[in-house]
Write a structure and sequence with these properties.
Elements: H1 3-7, H2 11-22, H3 25-41, H4 52-65, H5 82-91, H6 96-107, H7 112-119, H8 123-140, E1 144-148, H9 152-164, E2 168-173, H10 176-185, E3 190-194, H11 203-211, E4 218-222, E5 238-241, H12 246-258
Parallel strand pairs: 1-2, 1-3, 3-4, 4-5
Length: about 270
Amino acid sequence: MSLGQQLAPHLPFLRRYARALTGSQSHGDNFVRATLEAVVAAPDEFPRDVEPRLGLYKTFQAIWQSTSDDREGDSAGEVGSSSETIAQSRMARLTPVSRQALLLTAMEGFSNEDAGYLIGESPARVDELIDEALSEIERQTRATVLIIEDEPMIAMDLETIVRDLGHDVTGIAVTRDEAVAQAREMPPGLVLADIQLADDSSGIDAVGDILSEITVPVIFITAFPERLLTGQRPEPTFLITKPFQRATVKAAISQALFFDRSTLPE
């Protein structure tokens, strides 16, 4: 099997990580593109002493870590935006390596050992970095959250996680129409949206309707994230895989709000 064939199944998940790390679909995808270009340009330098997924993320990390903090994203081919300026304000108080440790373990499912390999830290240090990231992000971000989910137990679980993080829940919608109506009545600061809803309507369509009226960060929840990361249509920046762990939801919420202008501290 060629190297390309070995890496292909892992690309959707690397794109998810890159987008969550940068807070931007376009910037994240540009970093992934740069990673693949590096692999093609120097295949002999690709890490062969680890599994392909770990080697792919390691190559990505090398490119990410070579980017200077004050131009995060620009080296991947795009001019900085206002959301990046907002992020820079927060990164002055939160080291990028802390966010990487959190996302690699909580969202991408790497062990502390593998995350340590990827960011060049010991497993014990990874634990410390995760604690630092969560503590700092939770102090900086508070929001009202709309949950779009038709499974009662999952919706209750999400509500508990959201409230435990210190956020308020504006409502729980089970259909597209309910979601749009609730968002109009009480505009949320964050949306958590399932893909398939109770009346066979689409969470993607519901979010599209909401975003046509207000600007709000969105986290999609699905059992098949790779189906939303095909590169063939507009795709989510933040994506949670079902069944999810509490830490995954916590990391995704924190990171989505990290880049949202409405949660900047006074």
